[in-house]
Amino acid sequence: MLKGKSALVTGSTSGIGLAIARALAAEGANVTINGFGDKAAIEKERAGIEKQFGVKAIYSPADMSKPAEIAAMVRSAEQAFGSLDILVNNAGIQHVAPIEEFPIEKWDRIIAIGLSAAFHAVRAAVPGMKSRKWGRIINTASAHSLVASPFKVAYVSAKHGLAGLAKTVALEVATFGITCNCISPGYVWTPLVEKQIPDTMKARGLTAEQVKRDVLLAAQPTKEFITVDEVAALAVYLCSDAAKSITGANLSIDGGWTAE
After folding, report:
1. Please, what is the end-to-end C-alpha distance for the chain in angstroms?
2. What would the pLDDT profile of 88-132 be if each residue is shown by its tens digit?
3. CB-hemisphere CA count at 13 Å for 65?
4. Catalytic residues
5. How is 45-103 classified by DSSP, letter by letter?
6. What is the Cα–Cα distance from 26 to 74, expressed in whole angstroms?
7. How many angstroms separate the CA atoms of 41 and 16, rounded?
8. Less crowded by CB within 10 Å, the N or C end of the chain?
């Protein structure tokens, strides 16, 4: 379905981003993966994508808090593959603390990586998409782009911002064959979710099992974590011709969380 297309997925060395990159590669897209982590593990994933799906895959170590590196990454993807057709803004980090104790530097970094990075990537990618009259931009937001939870002021603010960014960009590029949408998952079992459990335990005075049952899955009527493959499948659909009229949307995949 995506043979000949090129995709860039930020924050894709693990979790949701890696699942999306693999799913796009499975449809024939060449991919650029990005993120931090063990170099050997990242190379294993990159090489595995090429071998399993018969596409080209490159890795960019661009720091998503640095605008110049983001723009350079977009240019590198365009140079490597001849175009950048699909941009998935997936990078994000989390910190959990009451607002009066929330470190200013954590606020700045979460907004930089979770929101500003998407702006810089879209800004760099749109000219090429416009020239080709085709593009797909997807922001990995969160149920927290629609509703809030306590102790996550920066993350919730960034995710709300991603939804607004998608709407605005969608309107600007609507006549160029480009769509821009948000995917808003509920709790997906990823390293990001796993890492926030100790801070939530401390903030709320709960055990790890209580955090999972009474904080995380309490919000999801299905009482199940969303899988990375479910999110990836929705991303692939949004890249299809069947989804060309879906733009400016914020699509929930949250086990019914935001229906309440």
Report:
1. 36
2. 999 999 999 999 999 999 999 999 999 999 999 999 999 999 999
3. 11
4. 155
5. HHHHHHHHHSS-EEEE---TT-HHHHHHHHHHHHHHHS---EEEE---------GGG--
6. 21
7. 16
8. C
